[in-house]
Amino acid sequence: MTDRWRSSLEKICIPIGALVAALALFGLFCALAGANPFGVYYSIYRAAFGSWSSFQNTLIQASPLMLSALCTALPARLGLVIIGNEGALVMGGLAAVAGGLTLSGAGAPVLGVQLGMALAGMAAGGIWIAIVGALRHYRAVNETISSLLMNYIAIAFLNHMVNGPMKDPSSLNKPSSYPIPEIDMLGTLPGSRVHYGLVLGLIACGLAYFLIQRTTFGFAARTAGGNVRAARVAGLPVGKLTLAICFLGGACAGLAGMVEVAAVHGRANESLNANYGYGGVLVAFIARHNPLAASLVALLLGGILASGGILQRSHGLPDATVMVFQGIVFLSVLYSDSLYGKLPIFKPRPARPRPPVATATAV
Amino acid sequence: MASEALGWWGIPLAIIAGTLRGSAPFLFVSLGECLTEKSGKINLGLEGTLLMGAMSAYAVSYLTGSPWLGVIVAGVAGMFLGCIHGWLSQQPRVNDVAVGIAMIIFGSGLAFFLGKPFIQPSAPQLPVISLGAWSQMPQVQSALQISPLFLAGVAIAPLMQWFFRSSRWGLLVRAVGDSPDAARAMGISIFKVRMASIVAGSFLAGIGGASLSLFYPGSWSERISSGQGLMAVALVIFARWNPVQCLYASLLFGGAQAIGPALQSVGIDSYYYLFNASPYILTLIIMIVTCSPKRTLTGAPGALGQAQE
Q1: pLDDT of residue B2
Q2: Sequence ranges of the domains in chain B
Q3: Class of domain B2-118+148-290
Q4: Would you call A324 and B113 a contact, using CB atoms and an 8 Å cutoff?
Q5: Does residue B294 register a pLDDT over 80?
Q6: Which DSSP state fits A234?
Q7: What burial class does residue A12 get, using C-beta atoms within 10 Å of its C-beta: 0-12 exposed, 13-18 middle, 19+ buried?
Q8: Using CB atoms, which residue from B230, B233, B280 is nearest to A153?
Q9: Can you give the pLDDT at residue A350?
Q10: Which residues of chain A fall short of a pLDDT of 50?
Q11: Across the interface, do A331 and B106 touch by the CB < 8 Å criterion?
């Protein structure tokens, strides 16, 4: 086994090991709560990947997760820990509804309305996170805390809009905006219930990977993320990079909001704030901020989220079980970060000195 | 309604009442976070600790009938989460901010999981101390009903100040937080000091949760915390890592939180949801004004947010 193989095997084995450990801990937790852990595993598997019908649910859950994960993963390459996904998603959803209603009211063609909704959502989410980046760069405000606060502000703004200016008077027990016309909704992929948001998510992850790994822009961002001072000395525009990366990340989360509105809910209301934001943070961290890995992890987490209902129905576990599971996975993955380079199996072997040739004069 | 008789005077009275009622969680969490950050680590997970404290206090108070036992158990539950954070965030190459986010998810998930059966029943509440007996007006009397936990928090703030300034252990915490290398040279175990600070800080945050579920709003539900645990982290920066200033800042935040309901009580409710966001907006504005890229903040522990080797 050469050293290169060893190191790439390490990069695959440690996260998988962390997931297995998290599954074991979660099983222990379920056993303590009085449920049969193997039954729970089987239920999760069946609800997530067991049949084509349930796999479609997983795919539907995975698409906003992929997009929202990029809101954490892209800025992370610049060394920023941004968790404002929820806020950007909410703002994107609101802007998409506002844009969609305006455009369809003006009699725009279906494709125009959909494009307008996507652009409005991306712009709103992008600006929302770009504000966080600007505060970080110009005022040195901690980006984690400011983005979290912006989440609460965005949710308050959503509540204000759907209870006030944008309220549809016919939505009584769940205040909502006016609905987007049926015809302007995002369609489903042929032969399935899965909407086009999945395609958008996959494309966004692919583009993000290309941008970070294969372009000078991405190289500059990674350099600045590695060492800001060195990047400044090299003449990189750190401020512009920060704003641009934050805008792109936020735009992805905003697009997730647009997908939720235009393909699932059809209107803006409280359901927009359905924890895809924090799920996205988790996906980004498990994927170690790699956009391609994020699309796979989103699939996995989407499956776990899709299994929330069945755990409640067939094992009598509360719906927060899924949240506990997410927490355990997150903690276990973070711990696994400290294991890189420590496990003896993956350590590069020192070039072994040849055993001294036995000479005839021994003894 | 209190404000009907008082007219527009009802607004400041309602804000004062809300401040006295609602600032205890801010106070406890910010004191806990202050202690934690003085030792050089950040604990964003105190939001989860707060929820866990609120749930366990309510559950124990319901099951045993003793709210004070609930307060103690809330603190102990906080310490349990603090142990996880303290151990994990000190592993090599593990980012304490990321651990905090994970602990928010884990702590609140655990609180919702275990707290599911306690949403319906009503638990015995903490006794209140009435300071309003001098007034004839029932509105003033009800506004001046103060939680004993709030008074305890007011007492802890100057005590913690004294602890940092004049006690040997306080010096150890500050040394570890300001200059870990110097502390190591003195033969202090950085791991142990930080662990102790994080666990003690989480104990306080757990008690802050008890104040939520056993005094105001005085019930247990999944929406009981509106991000007080997160705002407290920003509040500590605003208070420049000084416990007594944490007290003033908590009062300010408690007041900001009361603006929305106070205005609603006099009939201004068209911007209700936006006024409810005022604590968050206030926090953000305060951070924008007080932070600067040119200098480090006075009072900031030297090793705060720096990676461990």
Answers
A1: 43
A2: 2-118+148-290
A3: mainly alpha
A4: yes
A5: no
A6: T
A7: exposed
A8: B280
A9: 65
A10: 362-363
A11: yes
